Amino acid sequence: MNPQASTSPLSYDVVIIGAGPAGMAAAHRAARHQLNVLLLDEQPEVGGQIYRSINSTDPQREAILGPDYRHGHALAAQVAEHVAAGRLTYWPNTAVWQVDTDKTLHVLRDNRPVTVQAQAIIVASGAMERPFPVPGWTLPGVMTAGAGQILLKSASLVPSEPVVLAGCGPLLYLLAVQYLRAGVKIRAILDTTAGTDWKLAWRHGRGLLKGWRYAHKGLSMLREIKNAEVPFYRGIEDLRLEGTDALERVRFSADGRQHSLDAKLCLLHQGVVPNTQITWSLRAEHEWDTDQLCWVPTLTEWCELSVPGIYVAGDGASIGGALVAALQGDLAALGVLRQLNPTGHAGLSQEAATLRAEIASHLAIRPFLNRQYRPRDAFRIPEDDVLVCRCEEVTAGSIREQVALGCTGPNQTKSFSRCGMGPCQGRMCGLTVTEVIAQASGQSPQDVGYYRIRPPIKALTLGQLAQIDP
Amino acid sequence: MTLAARFTRPARAQGNRPPARPASARSSDVIIVGGGLQGLSSAVHLARRGVSVRLLEAEYCGRHSSGVNAGGVRTLGRHVAEIPLSLAARDRIWHHMEEFAGHDGGFVPSGQLQVCETDADVAAAKARIAELEALGYTHETWADQATVRELVPSMSHHVLGGIWVKDDGYAYPYHVVTAFRASAERAGAEILEQQRVTRLWHEAGVWHVQTQRGTYEAPIVINTAGAWAGELAEQVGDPVPLLADGLMLMVTQRVAPFVEPVLGAMGRPLSFKQYANGTVVIGGSLRCEADPVGRHAIVDMATMRNSAITVTDLFPHLRNMQVVRAWAGVEGFLPDQIPVIGPSVASPGVFHAFGFSAHGFELSPIIGEIMADLVEHGESRLPIHPFRVNRFTQQENT
C-alpha cells in the first residue's frame, strides 16, 4: 500500500494545468504574489508544444527552429527561478485524468495516482491539430505536421525520405522552413486553402497593419520556401492518399489538373484548435466559433469558465498564438488573485485592462489569418467512404446513415456505433462528427453539440485505478 | 455492410395494415411518458395491437440508463418475484430478437457466470440453487471448479466454482433502443423527443399531458419516466420512495478475446463482460451522485476503484489494461430493489413501469407486453402483484 494513502489530499491555492507559455506566465504571476502554486505538465520539461524541450535544445537545433522558439527562454527561466526559490511546486511527467467541479484534480504523477485539492484551477492545456479526414489519412506513412515537429524538437528526428506537406496554416510553413534548414528534401507542398481573398484582406487592412509582425513572419517563411525551389501546388482538390499497406502516392488536382506524386511520407496539417477535453468534461459552456470552426469555452473577462474558480488561458481558450497565450496566462492569474482576495490587490483592474488591450492588439490580425487559412469544407466534412473515427473505424457515410435513423447528435452516434469511444477519446474525430451531423441534419454545429467527455481524460490502467485513494 | 444499414429505416407506412397513428396532432389512445426501453417496448406492443400511441421523451430516446447500461441479458441472481418475467423475456423474446424488433440488438447468448471465491460464497450459491429448485426453477446451475476453468481458462485459480446460466448473455443497449424505436415507429407510434412533461391532469374524461412544447390528450397514460417517474406518480396520487441515482460503468481498450461468458461475483459486486470488439465493460453496483434537475450523474472514479480491485484479483494479467472511459447513467431505485409495474391505485387510466433499480434492461421486451395487456385487458398474463405501486404505503400502514 501507498504509505501516503491515509493522509489528506495535497492542497494548493491554484493548480495550473500545462507548462506552455500560458501556464508558465500564470505560474510566474501567481508565484510572485506568494500564492501556493502547483504547476503540472505531462512532459519532462516546461515549454509546452510551442517551446518543447526549451531547456535542453542545443544551438544547432535552435538555429533550425528559429528566433520565435527562443522567446520561450525568458518564461522558462522565470519558472526555474521560482522553483529554485521554493515559491513554486512544479511536477513534470504528470497527466491530469480527471478534474471535478469542486476543484479536485486526479493526476498520474510518474505513473502513480495522486489527488490534489485546489482553490482555483487554470487550465492551460493548449491546442491540438484539427483532424484532416481525407481518403487514406489513416495509412502508415501519413502523419500530422505537428507530430513531425515534435519529433524534430524533442529528438532532432527528421524524415529520411522526401516528404510531401499538405494543408494550410502557419505551422505547415514553419515546419517546411525548419525542414529545409535541417536539409530535408521536400517533395512538394500542397496548399489546400481557397487562396487569398485580397478584397477581404484589404478590409482587414488595419488588423494587418497592427499585426505586421505576424504578416512579416508569414511572408518571410514563404520567401524561404520559394528560394529553396520546392514544388508548390495551389488550389488543391480531391486530395487522396493511396497505397496498399502504407502510403505509396499522393493524388490530387491542382487548379484543375490531375497530379500523382510517389511518396512514402506525407505530413498533413490544417491548423490547430483549442483542446477542450477538460472544459467539456466539466460540463462548462462552450460556443461554436464560426471563424475558427471549432469549440471555444465561454469565458468571463477574467478568463473564468461557467464553472466558478476554473480559468482557461492560451490556445485552449481560443487560438491566438504563444504571445497571446502568455498574456492570457498572466490575466487568468490576476483573476485567481481577485477570487482569492477580492479587495486585497490595488491596481489589479488597471493591470488587467492593460493586458486585455495588449491581447486585443495581438489578435488584430486573427480575422485575416482565420480567413486566409480557413480549412475548406471538403477537407473538414468528408465524403461517405472516408473514415472519421480512426479508433472505431466509423465512416462519414455511416454517421449520415445514423442521422437518418434518428441520431441527432454526437452522443447518439457514439452510443450507436462507438464513434469517438476509442482510446483517443474523440479528440481525432469530435469536430468532424459535429460538422458531419450538422450538415446531414440541417442544424448548426452549436445545436448539434459535442461529445460528453468522460473521465479518465488520460488513459489510466486498471492497476493504477485499483491504487487510488478510496 | 455498415452497422446502420442493418437496421430497417422507420418507414412512415409499411405493410398492408394501416399503422395505428395518433388520431390527431393532440390526441391519441395512449400517451407514454419516457422514451427509455420500457416506454419504447410498451409503444411497440401497443402499436402492434392497433392502439394509437404517442410517446413523449424529455431528451432523446435511450439517453439515460436504457442506452448506456452494461447490456447484461441476465436471469441469474434475480429477485424471486422477477424470475417469471425475466425467463419470459429471455426465452420468448431475447432469443428471437431479430424476429421481434427487426434487428438482434447485438444479443449474444454467451451464458452468465457468478463466481465463488470463498467457502462462504460456495455455501450461499448452493443455498440459492436449492431455494430456486424448491420453487421449480432450474435455470441456475452449479458449476464446479473444473467447469469454471473450462468456461474461463484465464481466470485466477483461487475461484472455487460458480452459478452458471447458459442461456443468458448480453446485447448492445443503444442498438436495442434503436431497434425498439424503429419498430414502434413502423407500427405507427409517434415518438416526440425534447418534450419534457411538466404537468398532467384529468379533465373531461381524458388525461392532459403538458410539455414545454404543448399539451397532449389521451384516456390512458403510461408512466415509464425512469428516474423521473416518481414526480409523475406523485401527481397522479401514487407516492413512491423513488431515488434517482447515478450508476457507473467503465470500458477498457480492446484486447484479444479472453472471456466469453458475462461474469459476476458472489461475494462482491461485479459485472464484467468482453464484447466482440475486444473491449471489456466493467461495473457492479457502482453508484454515484445524480443531479435529476440537471439530468446527469457525476462520475466518481474513487468508487470505481473497488471494481478495478475485483477485476485485477480475478484476472491478474489485466493490471496494465487501459481504462478508456467511465460513464454514468441516471437510474431510478426503489427501497426493495424491484420495480413498480402495474395500474395506478389512485387514478384510473394510468399505468406505471419504473424503478427497475439497475436491472431493467433484460426485462424490457416483456414489460411492453405486460403494459399492453393491462391497457387492453386490464390484467397481465404474468404475475405482477409483487410490483404494485402501493406496496410501500401499505407496509407503512400495517
From TrEMBL, chain B:
The keyword Endoplasmic reticulum does not apply. Keywords: Oxidoreductase. Residues 29-374 form the FAD dependent oxidoreductase domain. It comes from the Bacteria. The keyword Calcium does not apply. Residues 1-26 are annotated as: Disordered. It holds the Pfam family DAO. One of its GO terms (molecular function) is oxidoreductase activity. InterPro entries: FAD-dep_OxRdtase, FAD/NAD-bd_sf. PANTHER family: FAD-DEPENDENT OXIDOREDUCTASE DOMAIN-CONTAINING PROTEIN 1, SARCOSINE DEHYDROGENASE-RELATED. This is FAD-dependent oxidoreductase. It comes from Yanghanlia caeni.
